[in-house]
Amino acid sequence: MLKIKRVPTVVSNYQKDEASDGSVGGCGRNCLRACCVDVARLPLYVCKKLETSGEKVVVSHEAREPPVAFLESLVLGEWEDRYQRGLFRYDLTACVTKVIPGKYGFIAQLNEGRHLKRPTEFRVDKVLQSFDGSKFNFTKVSQEELLFQFEAGEDAEARFFPCMPLVAENSPSVVAINVSPIEYGHVLLIPCVLDCLPQRMDHKSMLLALHMASEAANPYFRVGYNSLGAFATINHLHFQAYYLAMPFPLEKASSKEVITTDNGVKISELLSHPMRGLLFEDGNSMQGLSDTVSDACICLQNNNVPFNVLISNCGRQIFLMPQCYAEKQALGEVSTEVFESQVNPAVWEISGHMVLKRKEDYEEATEEKACRLLADASLSEERFKEVNALIFEAIGCSKPRGGA
Amino acid sequence: MSITQSSASLFSTTEEKEGTFNARYSLWIKEALDELPHSFTITDPFISGHPIVFASPGFLKMTGYSREEVIGRNGRAFQGPKTNRRSIMEIREAIREERPVQVSILNYRKSGSPFWMLFHMIPVFGNDDGRVIHFVAVQVPISGQKMRNGSGCSEMVFGSCRREVCLGSFVHQERALPVECDEQELENWEHCEASESEKLKSAEAVGSVLSVLTRYSEFAGRLVCGKRNCLRGADCLSSSLVISLGRIKQSFVLTNPCLPDMPIVYASDAFLTLTGYKRHEVLGQNCRFLSGVDTDSSVLYEMKECILKGQPCTVQILNYSNRKDKSTFWNLLHISPVRNASGKTAYFVGVQMEASCKDIESKELRPETRQLSVVGAVRVAVRSSFMATC
Question: One Pfam match, by short name (chain A) (predicted)?
């Protein structure tokens, strides 16, 4: 069994240490467990159906810089409300941030308030672990941290209901605030929250995440996923998302096409990024793209390979990044300097957004250091080839094109 | 129940858009630009949506659109499903950083047929205030004699443009196919490198357009130039910030607390409609021009206190409009300090809401939420825009 010690991110104000969480029902704080869920009332957003390639972007006469979409207004408005009510552990906008000079454009932020808890142990050699109800999970958050329910719809237009109860039979999904935000609008998407699913990718959840990225209609609103072993903090199925109106280095990486699946999904290998990974795009429909990526993730899970996923450009590009940093850390193979800054390469760091907790790390941040962190997290070329072979088999592709 | 956009977006006519362009330069600017043989467009980042305000006859001929169909649209209108996302990103970032860019990109004509072109864009700065007045974009069609595959190494590939061929290294020489030959294949090219002569053509075209603009702006006493000759003033927002703010359709203003008398540095179109003022009448002014005889001074005092403490507040205040009827209205005003990437307060945002709009149909966002969403959108825009420019 491999373990590491790290400071878990506090994503909810009700995230207590296991030892002190002795509460048994009837908590009186409006959570989502049986004690309080019946009185829960949240807005419900039902998004419109996803585009298929036949209906792709039709150039309309009014094609202009798109106005703020409804979902974006909902997220921003509710987030600002919680922000002004003081629900976040610190004022994110007071954290200085800059672009590290260099060709990649890594983004560095000095955030001294994000990692204040004492370190706990995390098991890093099992990507699939069962849900543990005694640990913190998202049914224990207070409803004030929940912004709205989110559902994948089938109609041509989205629908909004300002006040709806949470009905367990419908397996509602919710969007909550992350009380230790990296950037403005940092939220958690929790599919089927009441079903208490462990942090494990499945087709329906990936599709929901894609819906969210697509509906937000803003390329600067990305949705990310960390598997266990790739720095997911909570073993309760969730995605993260936030707004940053800058390109991520990962999004600027050049790539080389490796294969196109039968349903038209183009899979490419990243070339110029310090960490090896795959890019999934196109496809005959967004559902097809979603399913292909899900198949790949499930394959990695079943083979115990930790990974991160970045959904970018309104759901049109999905990056799949297998990693081995935690394993290296547990075996003492991480270079000392990278380890001392205690930056864990989760999905945002891998995308190029570095949140640094010490002033000296921020002031002395260089592109070289960022690259070294990512290089340490990256699979070796050999291992990456092996993993790719597993993935291509799992998604039903025979040999990658261009191969001998 | 479907969701509709909140306040109606303002649709200027072609004439109005062109009018704002003409206003910067002296008479006959349009005629002078029309005489240039090149394909180019000129956009105005200070108009919401960053639309095209001038399109050359060469551009209209190349794309097959009429002038009315082009003026007012964003450059993105000519992209399509197979346009390379990295090219789109490069252009977007160049706009944000207010710098030139030269990139090959796949565009689509009105007929729907795709074509490759070299897109060369430069910012045009006001000589006296250092801000971006326009972006000039030149389009040079690429003949496709050189192609590049996705691996990033430039190789000479002639002849058949099938995908399989593209992935190999050097391929046997054949005559180059003209670029319109097979559209299906055109779309599948990852990249199409422009030749040196095509690059020279674009630079030449950019130079020609710039010199016409410079000449005619000089006549008008408001010189523009290709380089930023002075630091943008503190009362001037970067074009990228203005473009981001232009996406917000509600009434709001940005004021700068670091300048004397905390003047308005940005006013949304909706604010101008609500208050009946013109943009040039409000920029540089303190918001107090909206108050009048019957405005409660204790409310004004409350606002001032919050501003000094750097706290958000919501007040109900009687405002006086400059609309035709000179009517007053109850303004549910929310103000909040907004920080930039340095973590310090750079602006205050004021979001106006006519009190009569409070009881809005229950199936839409609550007005309070909508008001706060404006604050949130402004926060994102301000924080991000300051990270790009030094």
Answer: GDPGP1_C
